[in-house]
Amino acid sequence: MVIHAADNSFPDWVAYNEMIGLGGWGGRNEKSGPYVYFDRQGKLVRDESPGNGGNHGPQIEFPIIVRDREHPIVQGMPLEWLHAKDELYDKLRGPAQNMQILATAESQITGRHEPMLMTIQYGEGRVFHTPMGHAEYSQECVGFITCLLRGTEWAATGKVTIEIPADFPTAEKTSSRAAGK
Ligand SMILES: [Zn+2]
Question: The ThuA-like domain covers which part of the protein (predicted)?
Fold first, then answer.
């Protein structure tokens, strides 16, 4: 499980970067791997051009767009839902091998759809990575909580039995639970 700034760690540890697929900051640049995003037409782009990896703008609420309808982590989720206030990471770079992008969010800075839910196959291991989750109010989002639980279950077992809760956010409205409830 890789959450938010965990993908800032260990810029020079080759195996860690293969596990997380994409990361940011710590001197990451084109040598770390491509900048991976979805363009406006929904096409996956692996941009090898030079540039730093990792950036974000002011914290905002933003829509999460589900890109994969079949993967157990996102199956049954609304195809668009509004995430609570958070940092929207952009320009993440990394090896991005054996990586599947399950959901994206459009960055106001890049105008591109940045990866928000990812799975990576690392050897025999399953990795779930979300760059969401900056602050407690970001992690109190029912969408975040659901992704965290389902992603963890999937990484541990390869399956998901946890259901999408009734208070899941919609395209128009965020939904949060106070910590500990
Ligand atoms: Zn942060």
Answer: 2-155
pLDDT tens digits along 106-150: 999 999 999 999 999 999 999 999 999 999 999 999 999 999 999
Question: Which helix (H) or strand (E) segment is 152 a member of?
Answer: helix 142-157
Expressed as residue numbers, the domain containing 118 is 2-157
pLDDT in tens, 91-113: 999 999 999 999 999 999 999 99
**Neighbour tally for 144: CB within 10 Å:** 22
The reply to whether 176 falls in a domain is: no
- The answer to whether position 162 is within a domain reads no
CATH number (domain holding residue 104) = 3.40.50.880
Distance from residue 3's CA to the centre of ligand 1 (Å): 10
Going from the Cα of 135 to the center of ligand 1, the distance in angstroms, rounded, reads: 7
